[in-house]
């Protein structure tokens, strides 16, 4: 009696098909989890700008409209610059102060995803609006924070 040990081609094809099916189902979920995790990069960067703006406001009668390498208090918010980076630490987001949003008592910081993070359509842009009515900031979209 000749006994063969091993797998048949059909058995191997079934295993490959099962592994492929699991990969097709699991990979998008994995990518979604990675994108959600990378949002922490935007949160940290936006909160860092918020702290920089608060320090800047202590020395200037309004918040700065632009990000730069030094604090510069100009004649108006539009001519003022706060010392903060325009990209998040990990580079997944670009940062800016929304056009014409900086005044004596309010400003809006916008974090826009770039590169692979741009596929995060659920949170295409994260904003923090600080005002006299919301001194700790209004975060939008709320599900992204």
Any chance you could write out the topology, listing elements then pairs?
Elements: H1 9-57, E1 66-68, E2 81-83, E3 93-97, E4 107-113, E5 126-130, E6 138-140
Parallel strand pairs: 1-2
Antiparallel strand pairs: 3-4, 4-5, 5-6
What does this structure look like?
By secondary structure, the chain is of the alpha+beta class. It is built from one helix and six strands. The chain has one helix spanning 9-57, and strands at 66-68, 81-83, 93-97, 107-113, 126-130, 138-140. The radius of gyration is 24 Å and the shape is rod-shaped. The mean pLDDT is 92.
Question: What's the short version?
Answer:
It is built from one helix and six strands, in the order αββββββ.
Order of helices and strands: HEEEEEE
State the end-to-end CA separation.
68 Å
Q: Write down the overall geometry.
A: rod-shaped
Outline the biggest β-sheet: 4 strands, antiparallel
- Structural category is alpha+beta
Q: Give the strand order, joined by hyphens, for the main sheet.
A: 3-4-5-6
Number of helices: 1
List how many beta strands DSSP finds: 6
Q: Beta-sheet strand percentage?
A: 15-25%
- Unreliable stretches covering 5 or more consecutive residues: none
Helix content: 25-40%
Radius of gyration: 24 Å
Overall mean pLDDT stands at 92
Provide the descriptors you would attach to this structure in a database record:
single chain, 145 residues, alpha+beta, four-stranded antiparallel sheet, two-stranded parallel ribbon, 1 helix, 6 strands
